[in-house]
Amino acid sequence: MKKTIFLFVLILLVSLQIQAQKNILPGAFQTAQYFPLLKNKRVGLFTNQTATLGAIHLIDTLIKEGIKIQKVFTPEHGLRGTADAGEKVNDEIDAKTGIKIVSLYGKKNAPDSTDLIDIDVLLFDVQDVGTRFYTYINSLQYFMEAGMANHKSLIVLDRPNPNGHFVDGPILEKPFASGVGKQPIPIVYGMTIGEYAQMLRGEGWMKMDKTKATENANWNLTIIKNKNYDHRSMYTLPVAPSPNLADMTAILWYPTTCLIEGTVMSEGRGTPRAFAYIGHPSISNQSFSFTPNPRLGAMSSKLYGQTCYGWDLTKKAPPKDKINLGLIIEMYKSFPQKDSFFLEPKSKEPTAYFFNKLAGNASLMQQLKDGASEAEIRKMWEPGLTTFKLIRKKYLLYKDFE
Q1: Alpha carbons 59 and 38: distance in angstroms, whole number
Q2: H or E element: which one contains 156?
Q3: At a CB cut-off of 8 Å and minimum separation 6, what does 1 contact?
Q4: Where in the chain is the domain with CATH 3.40.50.12170?
Q5: Which one of 188, 243, 276, 369 is separated from 220 by 20 to 30 angstroms, measured CA to CA?
Q6: Quick one: which H or E segment has residue 200?
Q7: CB under 8 Å to 370, separation ≥6 — which residues?
């Protein structure tokens, strides 16, 4: 009898979770709120393959509604999300629609005044994954700055954050700002892209002309909120946000295993399970093996064609409310040549190490070398996280997880 009751409760909980997932609707679905703002306007749309309303892309939805898309601006990986990480993408004309596509991950990272001269309003819709080193939030900042500088109002169609249910990691220190982290936020910041846009503006982190304080203050930023979402929601992405985050396993492990990009170990690029297959040919205490090879979205990376031994994280539950720091410590301890674990830059300056850029400081690398425990490392994170959480609260649009 008890077993039957338990199974009934389990089925009920799963059903409720599935129903809650179905009820979450990103901002793009709230068409009544933003279609009127776009009517009879020339729209500059920043987007990629993730901007869908069900099975229909936002571009097709806007065209069907008779809304004029003047230009489409694209982030890293391009409009279709197939370019390699870091690969420069060129401008093009979309064969299907004839719309000009301007890459903001190639020759430039922001639209200039020439790009915006024939634009009336800007629209942003890209799926983020909630980590500081995922480059879409940098693209958001550049797009916002261009909008403000050129007096173009911006509408952000918010999307749920699949890692929006916790905050964790070290706060980025200013000397370590780079293309994989610009602002003093932790690795996992627990905010949607709309909330983060408000933080960028509210905290004065945007680059702006200080002689135009009145114009800047009057610049119009509109956030179209998600429906039925809060920071306790566990949201499953309907479309892969980039080539190497192919499924939710990768997305949930990414806040932890992206740090491996700063080491000589493979983070699984060149396999179907990037960020879930981690290893190196020299690892001897793990039996799992994989061989990375060129594939779409990962044509070149570390250790291609070599058998790597290590961890299959598809067999392990992803962390629920924090980075799995213990796993990073375990991987470091398992690597036999400790002196060559971290990718070494030519300059050997602390700020040049890619691991330090990802971590946002030089402390974590040194703590790993010194054999610091997880508790000792986390104790150093606590003051920064406490301060950040207070700042974060000011910009939340949805009920928090705590």
Answers
A1: 13
A2: strand 153-157
A3: none
A4: 25-224
A5: 188
A6: helix 193-202
A7: none
